[in-house]
Amino acid sequence: MAESNQKYLKKFKGNKPQKVNQNIEEKSHEFLRKLYPFIRDYDGQLPNILDIFQPKAIEWLLSESVKSNNSVIKAKPLIDFFINTGYKDEPEVDQDDKPFSRRTTPLHHAGKRDASIVPDLFKIYDRFDVNYTNEDGLTHFHVACNFDCVDVVEKFLELGQDPNCLVTKTGDSPLHLALDWYRHKKIAELLLRAGADLNLANVDGVTPLHKICLNHDELLEMFFNINEDKHQTVQIDAQDKDSKTPLH
């Protein structure tokens, strides 16, 4: 098996990183399909993945596997392989060593497609001092709130993340997203105690309080208690675009 590993490594190392970055997109799914046997059959000590791929190529592989609708190409095995090699993403920085935050990562794609891989991707994208933002204004923090990644949300907040940062395209706050589909009580509590505003309306005029009253009656007492402790006023008469109030 070790001999087979070396054969695969030689094959992938044969492509210089620059060449991988330039040519990999030409036959994306074919390349990914060829990579899966390498992942599946690898035995023994795992390689330093940066000896094989540049960071941009790794991100491309992860993004394409997340976005793929091909039944053969699945993101989970690839993500697990990179995690097991010890790979961690590092941000690009400017001349003052300040990280660039404008960037679309596999986490942004996963947030639209597959909730199950979001916690695993945060093991690779584990920098919480930079909040990557895509072209829609969706951030890693938003994704963590939407998919109940409690430990990730806690780490972002500990480092000073604004609990009221909005998704530019939709106007949704982290609290909107925490209440979107699931009952993320712990996330909602963390956000409220960090200063999340129940009165922020998205582009449809919907406030977090609208969502609570519509889908999460069991959370109302907790929300009002926290707001009372923090002396925040709740606008119970706020109207959405259909002129509905939270208590309508």
For this entry, give a set of tags.
248 residues, mainly alpha
Structural notes for this entry:
By secondary structure, the protein is an all-alpha fold. It has a domain at 1-87. It has helices at 2-13, 17-23, 28-41, 55-67, 75-84, 106-113, 118-124, 140-146, 150-158, 174-178, 185-193, 208-215, 220-229. Helix 5 (75-84) packs parallel to helix 7. It is elongated, with a radius of gyration of 21 Å. Mean pLDDT is 85; it is low at 14-22. It comes from Trichogramma kaykai. ANK repeats lie at residues 170-203. Keywords: ANK repeat, Repeat. This is Ankyrin repeat protein.
Q: How would you summarize this macromolecular structure in one to three sentences?
A:
This protein is mainly α. The chain has helices at 2-13, 17-23, 28-41, 55-67, 75-84, 106-113, 118-124, 140-146, 150-158, 174-178, 185-193, 208-215, 220-229. The protein is elongated and about 60 Å long.
